[in-house]
Every structure is written in C-alpha cells, then in structure tokens.
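Design review, sub-item: ligand-bound model
Attendees: FS, YL, KQ
YL presented the inputs for the zinc ion complex:
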Amino acid sequence: MKQSIVKCPGCGLLLANQSIAEPPRYHASGECMELYNQLSYYTMSHGQEAFIHQLSLDAYGAQHAGEGSRPITTAFSLIGLYLVVEHGFTGRQVQQAHMELGRKKTEWPDLTPPRAMGAITVQDVLQAEAGPVRDALIEEWVRYVWSTWSYAHDWVREAAKPILTA
Ligand SMILES: [Zn+2]
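KQ shared the predicted structure:
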C-alpha cells in the first residue's frame, strides 16, 4: 500500500499519514503536533534557567493559529515572540509576562494567520543536533515566525505595553 501524506494546515509540513487526530486547540495535523510533543520532551527536560520551552511553545502556537485555536493562545504566543525578538526576554521572563497578562480580563482579537509560514518548522528544529545547535535554531524559529506576522506587529506592541512599562 502506498504511504499517504498529510499536510499540516498550520506550517505546511508534509508528513507520512499515521492517522493521528488533529489536536483540538491547534490548527495543525496530528502528525505535526506529535513532532512538537517530541520537541517538548527535549525543551522541558532542558533544565536551564532561561526556560527555552516557552520559546518553542510560542513559536509553535503562532505558527498554528487558525481554525480550532483560541484567540488568547495566538495573542499570547505573538506577545511572547515579540518580547524575545525585540526586548531580549528569556523564556522565563515571557512566562512571567504571560502570567501578568493573564490576570487582566481582556478580549483578545481573532488575529488572522499569515499564509506562507513554513520556512522553518518543528521538524527542522527536531532534526538539528540536540544542544546549542538546536537551541540556536529554536531562537531562529522564533524570529522567523515573528517576521511572518508583520501586519500584526503594531497590535502586539500595543498589547505588550503594560508588561514593558510595569
Ligand atoms: Zn505544523
């Protein structure tokens, strides 16, 4: 039987069909999500103060916005990417920023995801050698995903103001 291929609706990644259900809160194929879960084992066990897991969580979240995802996930992911790229925040600092923003009752807009967004995917990151090489690629992934959302940058900068002026 010929192996069928599944295309991830978020990042466009083509993967062998393993008939994995689409995750409920990401605009992603189950196969792509599975790669993200594998990456999470790595980032969660990284054991470093900078908490790189937050970077991959936000890069993946912003790259898989759309049908099924929640506006707050997209908004928080973009704010996280912004704080890392333009303000040099570590994952730990982004995590704290998210907690602060989460305390406020805000209506998060339903931001429309960009079209082309798969130049760097979770698969690239996972295929990079574990350690400094992979960690650097995670940061590159963050910068790349942030750049694909250029039309939302003004909104994100405004939404993140309370964090930066606190
Ligand atoms: Zn994907």
